[in-house]
Amino acid sequence: MAMSPALQVVIAARVPNPPAGDSLNLQVTVRNIADHTITLLNWDSPLDPDAGMLGIFYITDKESGEITQGLTVNFARLLPPTADSLVEIADGGTVENSVQIQGLDLVSGRAYEVEAKGKWKGLWDLPLSDVTRDMLETMRGASTEEFMSNKIAVKVE
């Protein structure tokens, strides 16, 4: 499994200095730097509607080195994936998602480093209209590649 060279994941804090006890709100942007359209399965990725609960965001206390992920859940997904689980990104295009990470015990006055890491569950080098039901049922033609975002700094007030 290789790192996806075609997709860049960039995160930014919506509030760079959140109050202690608040959730962490992030803006995620996925950019397609390939020269062709890519369709991806959003499950367990930064584009998943439930991304903030999937354990793909790592929050590291810069003083202690301790890592937290907030509240996490495991979803039982119905197969095959439905069309609303697919995201098409044109070459040079971007898709954004707002993510809220809850259940964090961040300490006031401390600095944290945040990044997203995981694996794309399905990538097709095709437009969405070319991904057939059979391809979804068998994941034929899909690759699975790792993703890793930039790291951002957050200081808790």
Question: What's the quick description here?
Answer:
The protein has one helix at 133-138; strands spanning 7-13, 24-32, 38-41, 57-61, 67-68, 86-89, 94-101, 111-119, 123-124, 146-148, 152-155. With 157 residues, it is mainly beta.
Tell me what you see in this structure:
It is a single chain. The protein is mainly beta. The chain is 4% helix and 36% strand. It is built from 1 helix and 11 strands. The chain has one helix spanning 133-138; strands at residues 7-13, 24-32, 38-41, 57-61, 67-68, 86-89, 94-101, 111-119, 123-124, 146-148, 152-155. Strands 4, 5, 8, 10 and 11 form a 5-stranded antiparallel β-sheet that branches. A 3-stranded antiparallel β-sheet has the order 1-2-7, with no helix packed on it. A 3-stranded antiparallel β-sheet has the order 6-3-9, with no helix packed on it. The termini are far apart. The model has no long low-confidence stretch (mean pLDDT 93).
